[in-house]
Amino acid sequence: MPGQCRGILDRSALDRSAFDRSANAFLDDETINRDIAPTSKPLLTIGKNMRKTLLFALLISLNAPAAERTLNNGNLVLQDIPVIPASMIEDLNRYQNVRSASFQAWSQDGESLFVRTRFGDVPQLHKVSTPGGARSQLTFFSEPIGSVNRNPNSNELVFTMDAGGSEFSQVFFFDPESGSARMMTDGESRNGSVTFNRDGSGIAYASTERNGRSNDIWMMDVGESAEREITFEAPDGTYWSPSDFTADKEGLLITNYVAVVDSRIHLKNQSTGKVTQLRGGGTNKSINLAVGFDADDQGFFFITNEGSEFAQLAWARLDDPDNIVRITNNINWDIDDVILSDDRQRAAFVVNEGGIHRLYLLDTRSRKFAEVDGLPTGLVGKLAFSPSGRALAMTLNTPKTPSDTFVLALKDDPTRHGALTRWTTSEVGGLNTEDFAVPELIEYETFDNRKIPAFLYKPQGQGPFPVVISIHGGPESQALPSFSSTYQMWLAKLGVAILVPNVRGSDGYGKSYLQLDDGFKRENSVKDIGTLLDWVEQQPELDKNRVAVFGGSYGGYMVLASSVLFSDRLKAAVDVVGISSFVTFLENTQDYRRDLRRAEYGDERDPEMRAHLEKISPLNNAERIKVPMLVVQGQNDPRVPVTESQQLVDQLREQGQTVWYMNALNEGHGFRKKENRDIYQQATVLFLKEFLVGK
Q1: Distance (Å, rounded) from C-alpha 567 to C-alpha 565?
Q2: Phi, psi (5° rounding) for residue 451?
Q3: 685 pLDDT tier (thresholds 50, 70, 90)
């Protein structure tokens, strides 16, 4: 929407998605603002990538081991996993029936809100017309709704969806009044980062339609013709994302995301085709993320960490982009999100203060800002000003409450506000949230005398408690004290303590900390888990002899690497869509994201780096893994291909190791369908009870 530009790139288009940034990404029922989509026909056809994965799944099934069964109409394959006792299913049921209601967009008149919530198997789009009012369901697809934007001049919505977790999202136009949806993209490519121009006549979006590798920027008319064309051709394998239009539609801000430490802002003149680099590049790498144009279209707001450890909100003139004004230079934490009002007179931004979010209001003319008081301590999700600019909607999440939608009343002074009103109250399975644990922030010293932050959840009762170390993905992500029904379930039903570390390489602690695990330094982050085990040994309330590791995506690699290095100190390990070999991962991950991952992990085409990656590969050191393992995978995963899990499972089984394996044929990078998530969570509890807690 015009003037409502996210300060951070559409993370569904990158690896720094909500999915990767949250420690709970592989734990709970829903995550916020991830581009995902449906198998519904005729709206979405099954593309070539999906056909390949389905064929591969068939080949696997023909050679499946004897101890195999399927559930959920054959979509969930379980190998060597015992039948879940009915008593356990019943015992966990309430924790698995928690919902959230995340804000998505305002209605055109500013009287209603569009939210995403789940009343079936997957989250869908709903409308709420009054605070605390009923949620009226608008979409009814078999796959979750992804990102949502509203046309600034109508109630027409644009949303994204994919098929089976493939992340090959398509763009849909949706009329909330009639309920009709039109798929506007080709059904084969990957599309996202939708940005409306200010009169609502068209959109810009990123797409791989041209060749499957390049994230080009396309333009599309909103009318019935829906004509579309490429406005910017991106080099192969690079990420480019539209951010904002000038009022006359002649100027388009574009962000080029090179790596987690390197992003650049460009201006494209739509008439001449000229592309001018405004910020970033050069020898000193820095983050530069476009927010949007100012009220006069003479300057632009952006986020940058150039010359600073932390990402700051800044402004610069288009004709003098090197002379920047640092608006938040007195805040020594990252600016995580920025949103502008339609008239560009107001802004709101979120500060990530050690994992706790602080919300600020900004007068864009005077550049004065003030913190919003009275918010619950927790996390702030998607923000958007109302069409009038007199209210700010958001998603709020705390350790005790799932994500819900709130609206903050605003005063004439852009830095002042009125009351905060709760619009949705999501179900928590009838559980008493007052009994939920709130994590304690601790620090422990690691091998090179650095302090590593971690969140500690403790169950009720007396220790020493068994311990689960839960490791986030990314790696450039951050464990946050967000709501997790799964953590609360483990605490209550298993009596375990949970440690959630932000090892080196995590976001939120400055750019130096972020780069401490790059390339040849990869295993230093694993050493941070080793020193966390040392810390556990010194805590009388924790049982050093009963420790498990859990993690998804890069966190899955960390689980596997920890199992290699510390098998004698662990009782169990849970690997969810984890990387077992960086070389095979880089060779088989999708083309459109391979170079981005090489920038973080190292380029496997370089002989020296390849030798290093082979040396630290858990797959090549599998003989050192001596702990029982649960491996969970989605067949259609475009990020960490199914082969990463399968090759590890095969190797461990050849060694006679205990391995439980679960593969969902209709999922991707994590489980998005409740029927699959329920069984995965139940199996995890059964596994931890068997191998960690004890019978």
Answers
A1: 6
A2: -95, 125
A3: very high
**Other C-beta atoms within 10 Å of 655: how many?**
11
Domains, the chain, ordered by start: 11-30+104-422 (2.130.10.120), 48-95+437-693 (3.40.50.1820)
What percentage of the chain exceeds 90 in pLDDT?
80
What ranges make up the beta strands (E) of 450-571?
A: 451-457, 465-471, 497-501, 542-552
SS3 content of the chain, % helix, strand, coil (to 5): 20, 35, 45
Residue the block writes with tokens 């650049």: 264
Residue 5: which region, alpha, beta or left (left: phi > 0; alpha: psi -120 to 50)? beta
Record the tokens describing residue 53, joined without a space.
Answer: 């994965």
Q: What residues does 417 pair with on adjacent strands?
A: 410
Can you point out the beta strands (E) in 164-298? 170-174, 181-183, 191-196, 202-207, 216-221, 228-232, 239-245, 251-259, 262-269, 275-279, 288-293
Cβ atoms of 417 and 372 closer than 8 Å: yes
Q: pLDDT-based confidence at 92, cuts 50/70/90?
A: very high
Q: Looking at residue 349, what is its pLDDT?
A: 98
Give the integer Cα–Cα distance in Å for 520 and 524: 9
Strand-pair partners of 369:
362
